[in-house]
Amino acid sequence: MREFRYAAMAFRSDARRLAISAPNGELALWNTAAPAYPERAGRLRMRHGIVAAAWNPAVTDMLATTTSDGMVAVWRLQDDRLPDCLGRWAAPGDSPRFIGWVAEGRRLFSMAGDGHTAVWDVRTGDRLGRTDISGGRPVAAAHCRGGEVVAITGSGWARLWRPGREPSDWIRLTDAAVRACAWSSTLLVIASGDGRIVCYDADFRPVAGMRIAQDRLSALACSDGGRLVASFDNGDVLAFDLDGTVRWETSVGAGPARSIAVAGDLIAVAGRSARPTLLALPNGAGVAA
Q1: pTM of the predicted structure, to 2 decimals
Q2: pLDDT, tens digit (0-9, with 9 covering 90-100), for 134-180
Q3: How many other CB atoms are there within 10 angstroms of residue 250's CB atom?
Q4: What is the separation, in whole angstroms, between the first and last Cα of the chain?
Q5: Other Cβ atoms within 10 Å of 22 Cβ, number
Q6: CA 153 distance to own-chain centroid
Q7: Which residues are CB-neighbours of 134 under 8 A, at least 6 positions away?
Q8: Which are the contacts of 200, defined by CB distance < 8 A and separation ≥ 6?
Q9: Residue 19's closest CA among 4, 29, 31?
């Protein structure tokens, strides 16, 4: 899987707003309410490039970001108004890579590539805790489960942490190196270096599995309805069901995708530019004019 310096993408759950990294580290904001005619809706710029972003699941106009120097920020992005920065915090650890919301959007977490993690109460600005969740193991992906932060290491292990407690025991997910991860409201999906994709439920029990091309996977996403979407280094994008049935295949260009996301019936694919490619989830058809 090819690495990009800036690969942040956050597609709001209602599919009406999209935040996507520009090559210079700015975060481009897009109005996708009319997906056939996406419009630029502003940009976020900080001193250092933005490496991750996440929409609040409960407050639809609130976006969190983190930068390459570890500055976490929360923004209010109301229609037709300039971005309003509600707060900033310094994240622990080196090489911050992940950001997300826990406790139904009341708390915010940041995680570095080395596993150093912190959680803040967004209302008060208080830091509720920090830990080294991975014990120094490189982290491939991070997400949440209720009030817990979840880290997936590049070597195929999962670990959970709730502020005020010690990190959980390790959970073995795969023996192969992790190439990509994706989440839906009910599933964790892991693509490993041996060409397997395995889907896990909320208790990390495998519920589905399939096999794909080993060396070409670029990015992975999963819809709440259980449809998986994978992009590959040659620009191909495939959608398939949990039983491995390929539903459609298309191409978005000659280069690999930096990131891919699903919201509602739309797929957003980011290539080398800050302008996204929008596809229809049911059939893969391009929807932008």
Answers
A1: 0.92
A2: 998 999 999 998 899 999 999 999 999 999 999 999 999 999 999 99
A3: 18
A4: 30
A5: 19
A6: 15
A7: 114, 115, 151, 153, 159
A8: 173, 187, 188, 189, 190, 206, 207
A9: 29
